[in-house]
Amino acid sequence: MKKAAADDGADFVDLYDRTGSNMACDGANRSIGGLLENSKIDIFGQQIPWYAHPNEMGRDIQAKHVATKVEQILNR
User: Is residue 50 one of the residues assigned to a domain?
Assistant: First the structure.
């Protein structure tokens, strides 16, 4: 994806470099929800599992990383 973005002159935000080493087994400091751990997403009265996707901490880490990149682009 990074190469494709560069080939098209677009900026790329590598989220994996911030959360790639964080696993669902990292206890309270993890930024990935467990495979079958319920998230806070409720669909038709049922919470769905994280399915190993970013939890609230992971979302916040990624959002900060993206916001930093956007600021860099706007301040060019």
Answer: yes
SS3 call for 42 = strand
- Kindly list the distances between the CA atom of residue 45 and the CA atoms of 6, 15, 41, 50, 54, in Å, as whole numbers in the listed order: 43, 31, 10, 16, 22
- The pTM for the full model equals 0.76
Is residue 1 one of the residues assigned to a domain?
Answer: no
Domain contains 48? yes
The total of structural domains in the chain comes to 1
Residues whose CB falls within 8 Å of the CB of residue 12, separated by 6 or more in sequence, listed in order: 1, 2, 5, 6
| Residues of the chain by 3-state class (helix, strand, coil), percent to 5 | 40, 15, 40
Q: What is the pLDDT of residues 27-52, one digit of tens each?
A: 888 888 888 889 988 999 999 999 98
